[in-house]
Design brief:
Order of helices and strands: HHHHHHHHHHHHHEHHEHH
Shape: globular
Number of domains: 2
Radius of gyration: 27 Å
Helix content: 55-70%
Oligomer: single chain
Distance between the termini: 90 Å
Length: 388
């Protein structure tokens, strides 16, 4: 820099001042570029600004989260590009998305364990803030949008105009056919709706982007659907005189699906799914309600019948359901694959868990069960209004 008319001393001072300003600007620019590379957001993140004061362990946790977040964004972008270009998605296209999302939550939990100050505000998904940075809510919105596309029902699926009421009606009809009292019948309807929300988020006839086996409104396999159909045929003669409307609807829907896959007719899929996995436990609902007074816990138990049926039944028969401990690595793997004990090193290091701990670990299901409970209350209110 040349300063015309300045004395040599003043010129030297001005040159030095210019260099200081220049170096400061370059330093800020460098930090900004690091932030863009780490987060893709184009701004200096709080994590980047704080990184200079982190310990080696904390810095490693931050780096692991940054890596997981980049990978999640990359797979989201890849699936979106493939869908927009109408490209074939390959086998189980949702699995990579699921694993990337799980890794983001897991590494974020490790980060907040190492740096508790990173625990931020609540988020619209109801996920505990220690497991999820609310700043990435838009990424989860995109994740859900992609799954909705990838799991869309097949073109020959037979939808219902009343999908939620169908689930409640079938659950209650099965309970009545088993001779259960009004309170138990009511609980069976609510619990059935809870399983529907847990399995498909309340979407009927969907496919499964993470599995080639489980399909439809209750996410059943071919063998499960077949067994449920046989169990329904055995109980149907008891249903007809107690619930003529349900029997008539069942006859119509069975004729409608004909020789097709009953998993892709909403009514028959729900009917067969309930009969295969849950109906034989309806008689135990009074005891379950005493054991677990909370309605959300009751729905969690029936969802565990869907995920780990044999251990859950063993726990119920043990006389100490909440204290019954699971230590089989295979069963722990099933739980982890369903978002329990899978987020963060501490959870992943667990080799066993009691059923009380398992129920508490099902916090990702809670919001779905709350929506199911609200929907069931809405259905009952409509029924009361129609009865007047």
């Amino acid at each position: 820099m040349r300063c015309v008319g300045a004395t040599p001393v003043l010129q030297t001072v001005l040159i030095l001042r210019h260099r200081v300003v220049r170096d400061f600007v370059l330093a800020v620019l460098a930090l900004t570029l690091v932030a863009v590379g780490a987060s893709g957001l184009g701004v200096v993140t709080p994590a980047t600004a704080q990184s200079a004061g982190l310990t080696k362990e904390q810095a490693a946790a931050q780096a692991a989260y940054d890596t997981a977040l980049r990978a999640f964004k990359a797979v989201l972008a890849e699936r979106r590009a493939q869908i927009n270009a109408k490209q074939a998605l390959g086998d189980r296209p949702g699995q990579a998305l699921y694993l990337a999302r799980r890794e983001v939550m897991s590494t974020y939990k490790d980060l907040t364990d190492a740096v508790p100050a990173r625990i931020g505000r609540g988020n619209k998904f109801g996920v505990p803030p220690a497991y999820f940075d609310a700043a990435i809510e838009p990424l989860i919105d995109e994740y859900a949008a992609l799954f909705k596309i990838m799991q869309a029902p097949p073109v020959n699926a037979q939808a219902s105009k009343t999908p939620f009421k169908d689930v409640a009606d079938l659950g209650r009809a099965i309970a009545r056919a088993k001779g259960l009292d009004a309170a138990t019948v009511d609980a069976a309807g609510r619990i059935s709706l809870g399983v529907f929300f847990a399995e498909t988020n309340g979407n009927q006839n969907i496919g499964n982007a993470r599995s080639n086996t489980y399909k439809g409104s209750f996410q059943t396999g071919v063998a499960e659907d077949r067994k449920g159909r046989a169990a329904w045929a055995a109980i149907r003669p008891k249903v007809a005189p107690l619930d003529p409307a349900v029997a008539a609807r069942d006859e119509a829907e069975t004729a409608r699906v004909g020789s097709g896959d009953q998993r892709f007719n909403h009514w028959t899929a729900v009917r067969n799914g309930l009969m295969h996995a849950h109906a034989d436990l309806f008689q135990r609902i009074p005891a379950i309600r005493k054991l677990l007074p909370g309605e959300i816990d009751q729905m969690k138990l029936f969802q565990l019948i869907q995920i780990i049926p044999s251990p859950t039944r063993s726990a119920l028969a043990s006389g100490n359901f909440e204290g019954y401990r699971i230590s089989d690595p295979r069963i722990m793997g099933y739980l982890r694959n369903n978002s329990m004990f899978t987020f963060g090193k501490a959870d992943r290091a667990r080799t066993s868990a009691t059923f009380r701990e398992i129920l508490d670990a099902m916090w990702l299901f809670t919001e779905k069960f709350e929506r199911a409970r609200a929907k069931y209350a809405e259905i009952k209110a409509q029924e009361r209004g129609q009865a007047r």
